[in-house]
TrEMBL record:
Alphabetical UniProt keywords: Metal-binding, Zinc, Zinc-finger
Residue ranges of domain SWIM-type in the record: 399-436
InterPro entries to which the protein is assigned, alphabetical: Znf_SWIM
Protein's UniProt name: SWIM zinc finger domain-containing protein
Length: 452
């Protein structure tokens, strides 16, 4: 399914000073708005990174093929950075290129904003020709223009896939709290990537630090980061020539089947977050469902969204103080906003960042398990029984939902197949909804299913 979201206004109206109000309906310079207009001071490295983003958007690792005409990254301007993001066609790889202040003309930022565009063959061809010549970017709400020494290419805004919106939500929840698990230099990183298995194998591997390098192992252990579908990491190879450091991110404790791999260069960061296996997309992981099921999540999200309209930086503690919500409720609200692609998490900065994509489909439309759970509760199909367990009736069958060692389990086929690795089933969600839980669990608790 593809969702087309449209802006009601080009950007928010703002107070320009005491007694000054600038309305976006007033015309003038607002008729041709731009979020950023300036030169990239590291053109060759930036062009290489953008080509990696394009390659990720074109890849479909479930089918082992390249898609054509579906290369639509999301571009966010704000806080002196440009961020280009894309998912693979299977949503199993999330890529982001951050152009930091050292790579950009600092006078080019005009306002905060986000758009999503196509990358067509003319733009890809233009990027391959960039060496150390000119690379100028104009980013607006409806298009992105790229000007090189020899040509100018304009890419228009396109519909944003609902699978990408679900993927944004999952990666934000899964990576929140990640920290550096390993770090190595370019030479070591080059050798490591060259030794990775080629082809489309589904073998589950793990990576652990080994001195100044990285070591592959077949077993998970403390501090290990999963590398299922290791061939997907080869997407980073073209950017190696510009990188100084490879960092691997995972949760602070235990092991994780999901990892973020970041090549860092002066002024740029290029990262890939890989799902547990090549045949699994982030859009179906379900790590966010517990937070999304909070009874106050959507109302809290409206309040947090209002606060973000005036301040593009995101600090959970500050938002909690400003909104009067607890930090956990703020995180749950950010998860709801992530469902519309409006909030992301940056592992390098250990903090959230604000996108300003317009509101897309509702939470339930993008999460059928949550929609089904709410319907079960509304139909009176959930009943509390003795010993703290619950019975959920579904399609004429009864399932026992109970707590075992601090985690909820169910007797349904979904739970038997996945054992929580793909998030809670609709019956477990319904059980939680019946309890009327107001405080969302921590991000770490919500990631339990994918951190095995």
């Amino acid at each position: 399914m593809t969702t087309l979201a449209t802006y009601s206004f080009l950007s928010p109206s703002v107070l320009t000073g005491p007694g000054g109000l600038r309305l976006q309906t007033s015309g003038g310079p607002e008729l041709n708005p731009r979020f950023f207009s300036g030169d990239v001071t590291l053109p060759a490295a930036a062009a290489s990174g953008l080509l990696v983003i394009s390659a990720v958007a074109a890849a479909d690792f479930r089918r082992q093929q390249t898609r054509l005409g579906l290369l639509d990254p999301v571009v966010t301007a704000g806080e002196s950075k440009l961020r280009f993001e894309a998912f693979s066609g299977c949503t199993g790889v999330h890529a982001r290129l951050d152009l930091l202040p050292g790579a950009l003309d600092g006078n080019g930022f005009l306002r905060h904003g986000t758009t999503n565009i196509d990358i067509n063959p003319p733009l890809r061809k233009a990027l391959t020709r960039v060496r150390e010549g000119r690379l100028h970017l104009d980013v607006g709400p409806d298009d992105v223009a790229v000007t090189t020494a020899t040509e100018r290419v304009v890419e228009r805004k396109v519909p944003l896939s609902s699978a990408w919106l679900r993927g944004f939500t999952e990666t934000q929840v899964i990576t929140a709290g990640f920290d550096v698990r390993a770090e190595t230099d370019r030479a070591t990183a080059t050798g490591f990537l060259a030794r990775l298995p080629k082809g489309g194998g589904q073998e589950q591997l793990w990576v652990v630090p080994a001195g100044r390098g990285l070591r592959l192992t077949a077993r998970a252990g403390a501090g290990a980061v999963g590398l299922g579908g290791a061939h997907r990491l080869q997407l980073l190879t073209p950017f190696l020539r510009y990188a100084k450091t490879l960092r691997v991110y995972g949760p602070a404790a235990g092991s994780s089947a999901v990892g973020t791999w970041e090549l860092s260069a002066p002024g740029l960061r290029l990262s890939l977050t890989l799902s547990p296996q090549a045949n699994r997309g982030f859009s179906g992981e379900g790590a966010a469902l517990t937070q999304l099921a909070g009874s106050d999540g959507e109302a809290d999200a409206d309040l947090v969204s209002t606060l973000l309209a005036w301040d593009t930086s995101i600090d959970v503690t500050d938002l909690a103080a400003s909104s009067g919500l607890s930090p956990d409720r703020v995180r749950a609200a950010l998860t709801v906003l992530a469902t519309a692609g409006r909030v992301g998490y940056d592992v390098a900065e250990a903090g959230y960042f604000h996108r300003s994509l317009p509101q897309g489909p509702g939470v339930e439309q993008l999460n059928p398990r949550l929609r089904r759970a709410r319907r079960l509760v509304a139909e009176g199909a959930v009943t509390r029984v003795e010993q703290g367990t619950q019975v959920v009736g579904s399609s004429g069958r009864t399932y026992l939902v109970r707590e075992v060692s601090g985690a909820m389990t169910c007797g349904c086929t979904w739970w038997e197949d996945h054992h929580g690795d793909r998030g809670p089933c609709a019956h477990v969600l319904a059980a939680g909804l019946l309890d009327g839980q107001r405080e969302a669990p921590s991000a770490a608790a919500s990631r339990e299913g994918v951190a095995r």
